[in-house]
């Protein structure tokens, strides 16, 4: 029997997608903030109550609030202007794209994920943000010794995300992080009123 012919290499000219990595170069944080300081990112920042409180409380740190909805991102920008918070910037963009493409290796001190959308239906789990693959992208962007903090009201999501992170060899659970000194956020306030429990976990970049 004749041997089947080797599969031809894919022809790059047949790929209809333009690489979006060509759209923007990574941010240079000292250029953005006009100084060299630890940079912390709040992903899915909502209306920015938390990011504003952190920026006000910790003027020695710089904060980037990433939010994909224009209305919410605009509210964050207004808070930064009204509060004259030069250490708070807002970016209207998708979090995973931002971390993967717009943050230089080791350029972040910490990343916060507060009440990320839990996507409770099994068929929607592919939309959940804190996957093993995203953990690897975060590990690239966060400096060694830096931090990742997850807060959620959804126990199923919490267990799922922790299991995903268990596969990330670059992250180690931060046993001493309780999150009790964290300022609140709009969703936290709402969930508190509903009597929902809160689940928190921190990881340290090895
Ligand atoms: C449940 S709210 C939590 C908001 C805020 N962190 C808080 O604690 O109040 C989730 C927020 O994440 C935003 N979001 C969801 N997925 C996102 C993504 N992939 N990139 C950027 N923002 C996202 C939503 O628009 C929403 O504002």
Question: Which features characterize this protein?
Answer:
206 residues, 7 strands, binds S-adenosylmethionine, alpha/beta, globular, Rossmann fold, 7-stranded mixed sheet
For the largest beta-sheet, the strand count, sense and barrel status come to:
7 strands, mixed
What topology, given as strand order, has the largest sheet? Answer: 3-2-1-4-5-7-6
Q: What is the terminal-to-terminal distance?
A: 54 Å
Q: What's the mean pLDDT score?
A: 94
> How many separate domains?
1
Spatial shape = globular
CATH class: Alpha Beta
Determine Rg (CA atoms, Å): 19 Å
CATH topology, by name, is Rossmann fold
Q: In percent, how helical is the residue content?
A: 25-40%
Ligand set:
S-adenosylmethionine
